[in-house]
Amino acid sequence: MVDYAPLAFFIPMQKERVLDFEALAGELRNLRENVSGVTDTVLAAVDGIPIIADAADHIDPAKVSALAAADLGIARQAAEITGKGTLHQTVVFGSEGYMAVYAIGRLALMVVLGDKGLNVGRLLFEARPVIERIGSILAA
To answer: Whole-angstrom Cα distance, residue 16 to residue 64?
Structure first.
């Protein structure tokens, strides 16, 4: 089920912007449908505020967004301190599934949750163009 954020997305120093939530929802839905094992997706601002979610009722987008923002922040610092360049993603491999967090520029992130059957290789392949399209939607 797609959950829309109750507030418009704000960019510092700019007027309030109305996002194309239908386009964002379509990108999240297509990723779930095209990659075997993807169960839930959440798009959030880099500070952990959820923008939109395509997630089951038992998934709290606010908690997932906050956790992903912390994960992304730590991983971003690790990449920079170790000289590994700009962070693109982190993947948590758990005994019951996966959580992948993708940086969308410096302003947003996407969380992908998957079950044990997640095709991680396919996710890595499919996620990059989705990230680019979401980045364009957010920048519009």
So the answer is: 25
13: region left, alpha or beta (phi > 0 left; psi from -120 to 50 alpha)? left
The H or E element that residue 103 is part of is strand 97-104
Q: Please give the helix or strand (H or E) that residue 126 lies within, else none.
A: helix 120-139
| Rounded Cα gap, residues 21 and 8, in angstroms | 10
Q: What is the largest CA-CA distance in the chain?
A: 44
Domains and CATH numbers, the chain: 2-139 (3.30.450.30)
DSSP 57: T
Task: Indicate the pTM of the whole model.
Answer: 0.85
How high does pLDDT run on average in the chain?
Answer: 89
Residue 33 backbone phi and psi in degrees, to 5 = -75, -30
Position 21, amino acid: F
Low-confidence ranges of the chain (pLDDT < 50): 1-14
CA distance to 60, 79, 108, 139, per residue, from 4 (Å) = 13, 32, 16, 18
pLDDT in tens, 125-140: 999 999 999 999 999 8
